[in-house]
Amino acid sequence: MAANLTSVTDLPPLPSYEVVVAPDLLPWLPDFYLSILAPTVAYWVVSIFFHIIDTWDLFPQYRLHTPAEIAQRNKATRYEVLRDVLFQQVIQAGMSFVLGMTDPPQYTGMEEYDVAVWATRVRLAQRALPALLGALGINAATISKNMAVSHPLLAGVLAGGHYPFLTTELAGPDGISVPAFATWELLVAKAIYHVIIPAFQFFVAVTALDTWQYFLHRLMHQNKWLYTTFHSRHHRLYVPYAYGALYNHPFEGFLLDTAGAGLAYKIAFMTPRQGIVFWVMSSIKTVDDHCGYALPWDPLQHITSNNAAYHDIHHQSWGIKTNFAQPFFTFWDRLLGTMWHGDTSLKYERSRNKAQEFLEAEAKKASAKAQ
Hints:
Elements: H1 2-9, E1 20-21, H2 31-56, H3 67-73, H4 78-102, E2 107-108, H5 111-125, H6 129-135, H7 140-147, H8 152-158, E3 167-169, E4 177-179, H9 183-222, H10 224-229, H11 250-267, H12 272-289, H13 300-303, H14 308-314, H15 331-336, H16 345-370
Antiparallel strand pairs: 1-2, 3-4
Helix pairs in contact: 2-4, 2-12, 3-16, 4-11, 5-9, 7-8, 9-11
């Protein structure tokens, strides 16, 4: 009991705190409305960027398809695509509104306290080190005693997190000396709180969204009724382009994209601001995957192998039963054997030539009629 008492009483005290409502990221726009608008704004900023490249034909060497293919192979007009995308974004805005209404108010002021809590956990974790080293035949107490003068911090770690030389005074006229955290403990705690935990939350959200979309997407290809009724609309774009990324049947768009992203957000226990970043990131990635370009300087095309070239294969008649993974990684395709394998250059070349020949034949017919 005495040892336990010592292990608790020599812990640094936690700082006091006062919580206040967190200020909005943008002083002129509440975070609530930012969460609704940001994904749509990001979608159209990136889409317009690619549309300009496409319209002015700025990088023809990086095109996945020629303008002739876009004109000849797609079965949906630009107007139909724009109409359906805007309708889906209205649905997305509605979902963001509902999620925002269910989120608790965001507060700030506890950050220093939360970091101290993690520093305390780091300190307590050190308590197990002497026993672990003892199981390996190493006398941690003796080593700690020998290093106490030359390497006091390392000696404190080996002693099980005991740093009698680290103290600070409590605030106030009657301040007394109390134990303090080592600098390295605070750095580790800050890394956990500000980096590792948010990174893990994003990892969970990305994994959840990829899993949701893979299995629903694959199901819509395996079930004839689901494909014919819902998913076939998206595949009217044999040649995808940026702002057609969300061209879907409204029900599919809600189930596959909107509900999936909302569910991933909740599963990962993200804060509303993390949610904004996640939804914006997902929107940009979806647009990039449908942009129709393999740009060597586009970072999103290199972060993962799930990029525009990868997803474009799925939009072709010969690759429609492969490459279901969306929007971030390809691990489900790899694990379940649905990844396309083999060279595609001849297939793409054949499609380009066929589309060009068709347009030339149509031009000749129109010319003959005019004469």
